[in-house]
Amino acid sequence: MDRSPGCGSSNSDWESGSLPGRSFFYHGNVKMTRLITLFFAGIILPESEKVIAIKEGDGIALPFDVVTWWYNKDDTALLVVLLLGYTLKAHKAGQFTDFFLTGSNGIFTGFTTEFMLVGSQPGSGIMKVDAGFKMPELKKGHQNGMVLNCEEASLEVDIKNGGRVVVGLGANLIRLDGSTMCSPGFSCDSVLQVTYIVSGGGCAQVVGINGKRVLESTVKAGNLFIVPRFFVVSKIADLDGMSWFSIITTPKTSVWKALSLEVLQASFNVPPDMEKAFSSKRMDSEIFFPPN
């Protein structure tokens, strides 16, 4: 999604940022990073989380559209991040498409309380965690094949096919029972997501990459609406249910199932019992949430 300085493509870019001590950063789209000093990072692949230690000179090649979190455990050191990659498929070509799952500008803040109840985390992007808060432990072997230290690697090392995640997309006919909610989802590979309401009706909401709601509408049979890439859409059926034809990502690649409990607790700024309630929902359900 992004690129290094000096490349000739107009559809690529680079960006840098910093992370103060004891800070936590949640990021939606990163392609490659170079990090200064020693910190922790979490990389959320489909239904799995890799927790790795990173230090000065490390380069990490990441698949397109993965979710990452970065943690600076040092009170004084500053984390400097350089993002590199290709932006042809970005929401705006030539610019990074960054979005956050939580915080005051997270993608869930744009939904009304009928869809989402989010408001405990006032932070935006970079959030301070309390002293003594325990983040996920490092996992042995997770760095293998993912991290290359630019200052320690020998010159003859040749890194090929760093890896990519191919998310399966297909045409789907979705049927919701009465008063059931369809989990928020987005398309990253196709330019547009087209949805046609076949029968029934309900409510649809769409949230943009800045966390602002861009559409809230009652939908019924015969309606058709189009959602741009990276925009998040969710629907709730009326009492009689709702069916629609659409192209969506597979429901079994939810990053919520892979995230550590500690990361979720810090991201949403909620006590452990609230996080456990959220976790039970994300583990028990696929993409449909029946009424309680």
TrEMBL record:
<dbReference type="InterPro" id="IPR006045">
    <property type="entry name" value="Cupin_1"/>
</dbReference>
<keyword id="KW-0732">Signal</keyword>
<dbReference type="InterPro" id="IPR011051">
    <property type="entry name" value="RmlC_Cupin_sf"/>
</dbReference>
<protein>
    <recommendedName>
        <fullName>Cupin type-1 domain-containing protein</fullName>
    </recommendedName>
</protein>
<dbReference type="Pfam" id="PF00190">
    <property type="entry name" value="Cupin_1"/>
</dbReference>
<dbReference type="InterPro" id="IPR014710">
    <property type="entry name" value="RmlC-like_jellyroll"/>
</dbReference>
<dbReference type="InterPro" id="IPR050253">
    <property type="entry name" value="Seed_Storage-Functional"/>
</dbReference>
<feature type="domain" description="Cupin type-1">
    <location>
        <begin position="142"/>
        <end position="276"/>
    </location>
</feature>
